[in-house]
Amino acid sequence: MSLLHLEIKNLIIDALGLEDIGPSDIGNEQTLFGEGLGLDSVDALELGLAIQKHFGIRIDADAKDTRVHFTNVSTLAAYISARQAVA
Amino acid sequence: MSGFIALRDILLDGVDERTAAVGPALERRELVDDALRFAAELQARHIQQIALHLTDAAAVAIALLGAWRAGVRVVMPADLQDDSRTRLLHTVDALISDDQPLDTWLTQAPLTPAPLAPYDACLVLSTSGSTGQPKLIEKRLYQLANEIAALEQQWGAALGDALIVASVSAQHIYGLLFRVLWPLCAGRPFVREVQPYPEYLQQASLGHRQDFAWVTSPALLKRLGDNLDWQALRSVRKVFSSGGPLPAGAANDVQRRFGQPACEIYGSSETGGIGWREGTLPWTPFAGVSIEPSGDGGFLIKSAYLPAGHAEPCADAVRHLTDGRFELLGRLDRIVKLEEKRISLPRLEQALLQHPWVADTRLGVVHTNRAFLGALVALSEQGLQALRNGGRRALTEALRSHLSGHCEALALPRRWRLVGQLPSNSQGKLPQRDVDALLAAERTRQPERLSLEQQDDEWKVTLAVPLDLAHFSGHFATTPILPGVVQVDWVMSLARELMPLPPRFGGLEVLKFQQLVRPGDHILLTLRFDTERSKLYFTFHNGEATCASGRIVLEQAHA
């Protein structure tokens, strides 16, 4: 688990108020929304805000299907790295 | 706005060249033709009643209008959880859902266009009831038609021929009216799929070279972020919001970003629309809606959106202002709203009580970034064993998964507080505000004191080890054990409370941990301070067995 992965997992736990779950309980490839962790679209909205704030990036509002990057921790890590490179 | 068509006459509109929906585009005559084909299929199968749960707003329109044309009653469940599916399978002849493409129902030759029957065409909405069972609410076409006509009267001119883009589903009355039936009657195109994220709404709105209006909810408007093209979005004709009041902060954000206030709609499935407001002003009742005190502290709604003479109880407390407007003061029952979704606390409590580990339970709402449910659970003997042998996380996971068949993910409790029995106040009651306060609090770090007695220079304190002690989480995840360091900490803090002691900690002697202390144990702590040696003697007993013992050396502060 890279530092960025760990940072994202901690952000998910903090931003969404998850109890009894530690970073090691969230798999890098585990689906975050719907099945899996049982998070919903409001969590996706919250996480979108938290990620933009925490990492100082912007979700590109003109790109198609931006929320595909929210599939799991690995896709988020790749997206955040790419956006940070843009900024 | 020219070309408004009454809801009952929608299917007579077969030659209309306008676009009904986009994404992908569907012309009005295609929509009407599909509805008449769907009607033919229902008739061919002798279907009397269908349930409808679809994400495509155009498909919702086709199925609903087609069913009405065929004289078929339509049930719209609030969700498709296992519970709801089972209930539906007993009551309807067919479930029309995303499981199967609607096209498979559109192969018959269409029925002839005909007006719909205002007093017979029936829609049954389903929402959380305070008794625990879902509440079914019957709407006749004329009720919906009256509401649509009133909305067009109020905002038709402001909307023009705007494209309707929505972040809410068409499965509830607000979405069904605002993003499907009203646009259809008014001739405004609507975007078929729900757009749950800000950037999706923006993409669906811009680039059509057309005006647009938004049908949203506080869940979205509270979380707009700042990555959108506000300059382009300021051309939005209206930003509707409904499902719950928009907090003042979010209302101000909307005003600042869009250069106009959100237009909030207040109402419910039961009552239909009651009133509206823009910005943070009080609410204005819709024309012809009356809100009267019911005498028992509640309110009754009468309007043209309800059957004639019917007075529908209102779930909120209302304060009337002298100018005819009103303010909302909060709900009167144990239904809560989480992100505009209505959740029946009694229903979930009943479902939790079916689990053998649960002796009693009360739910409440916890407010952090988002609001979610918390559960205060009194464990049964079996539940206590499960906690002691498997740990807290396995227990709460099992309870969550037990509940998941009964409710949407949104309603699954995220915070759990485990107790031996539910507390009660001096009247023997557990008011909701106490439940909410217990759920809001951090997990305890202190033992519960059951009794205290002094014999000569010795103190005996009986302690209950809380089931939910914060220290159990890391120690250990699957077998919670009271850490020795916490035991020593409890000894020191209790001893300092009970007797005068030298201030400085000088060390531990003959410290022994002989038996594990676990959640729910009652332990007897014996304390004695030997002044001559300046040592605090302590022993923890669980029944006959000694759990731990030792001496703590205490010293006078040095000058």
TrEMBL record, chain A:
Pfam families: PP-binding (PF00550). SUPFAM superfamilies: ACP-like. Residues 2-84 form the Carrier domain. It comes from the Bacteria. InterPro entries: ACP-like_sf, PP-bd_ACP. Gene3D superfamilies: ACP-like. This is Acyl carrier protein.
TrEMBL record, chain B:
One of its GO terms (molecular function) is acid-thiol ligase activity. Residues 453-551 form the ApeI dehydratase-like domain. SUPFAM superfamilies: Acetyl-CoA synthetase-like, Thioesterase/thiol ester dehydrase-isomerase. Residues 104-276 form the AMP-dependent synthetase/ligase domain. This is AMP-binding protein. It comes from Pseudomonas matsuisoli.
